[in-house]
């Protein structure tokens, strides 16, 4: 009964769009600070960049949140904890792999004790950099927005500013001296 | 490409602590050197590590900052390196004392100093699982401390491998991981 009611609400009553809108603007990442990338995430949530404009509220317990932001190197011991943490989170849940270490091992590539995050969890968005800037983290959350909307890909158009009135005029090409007759 | 191994002890020079240590340690002092930072470095025989540690405790060194090892694979030896320092003694302020001992690589055993200096306990356990050096007297030998229980185990024999030894081979991830 409840399944049929859920089907009705999501499909027929067209609540799916509303549901996605709600999920999109309340992405609460768990801080899983295993490396220096945690410093950049602190900046992301700070007043300078203020990722809460996009609904990104840093959270400390995984049972009440829906995004896990893997900040840095994952060792084999930490990978067990990461998997446990991920399985405690309620659906829908998303994984962001932040930094070179989480994506491909980074500095510790081919080490005896480092694993890549995508061998443990299904990663939604990768963030490149060592460490990535707060802008890159915010951009990854925008990509996650697009993924939830159903149109994955970085659909962020850059802001175009015409600077030509403020720049000095380009130098004129100097005329070549005429070739002397031999 | 042949990589030249670093020297086991820096070149000898004068040091204000040297006379005091020479009278205190006696024949336990094999040779000495001074590092470029100005810290004294002593080579001691591996059988007298506990005796040296007890005497240094009397002299005022109250903790072991670091305990590590170095693998000289070509010579078949491990160099166990202790770094002593003092928080409380004003005469030993800003001084680090390096104490080094050589042990054979095929039978790496050395006495534990964890009961004299409790701060050396964790370092000994780490050194044991990274290099396979057996610290006799430490109760935690043979157990995993930092490494994952499934990591670094020989598939054929089931014995643990030691990842910081020079002959350890990491599994190759390939070009793109």
Polypeptide structure, described:
The complex is a heterodimer of chains A (182) and B (177). Chain A is of the alpha/beta class. Chain A has a domain at 28-149: Rossmann fold. Chain A is 35% helix and 12% strand. Chain A is built from 6 helices and 6 strands; from the N terminus they run ααβαββαβαββα. In chain A, the strands form 2 sheets. In chain A, strands 1-2-4-6 form a 4-stranded parallel β-sheet. Chain A has a two-stranded antiparallel ribbon with strand order 3-5. Chain A is extended. Chain B has 177 residues and is of the alpha/beta class. Chain B has a single domain, classed as 2-Layer Sandwich (Beta Polymerase, domain 2). Helix content of chain B is 18%, strand content 23%. Chain B has helices at 18-25, 49-59, 120-131; strands at residues 31-34, 40-43, 63-72, 77-85, 97-104, 109-111, 134-136. In chain B, strands 1-2-5-4-3 form a 5-stranded mixed β-sheet, with helices on one face. Chain B has a two-stranded parallel ribbon with strand order 6-7. Chain B is globular and about 55 Å long. The chains are: A alpha/beta (182), B alpha/beta (177).
- In terms of DSSP E residues, the strand content of chain A is 5-15%
Portion of residues in beta strands of chain B equals: 15-25%
Using the 3D structure, state the CATH architecture of chain B: 2-Layer Sandwich
**Count of DSSP H/I helices of chain B:** 3
Secondary-structure content class of chain A: alpha/beta
Radius of gyration of chain A: 23 Å
Given helix and strand content, the structural type of chain B is: alpha/beta
Characterize the main sheet of chain A.
4 strands, parallel
InterPro entries (chain B): NADH_quin_OxRdtase_su_C/D-like, NADH_UbQ_OxRdtase_30kDa_su
Pfam families (chain B): Complex1_30kDa
GO molecular function, one term (chain B): NADH dehydrogenase (ubiquinone) activity
Organism (chain B): Pyrobaculum neutrophilum (strain DSM 2338 / JCM 9278 / NBRC 100436 / V24Sta) (Thermoproteus neutrophilus)
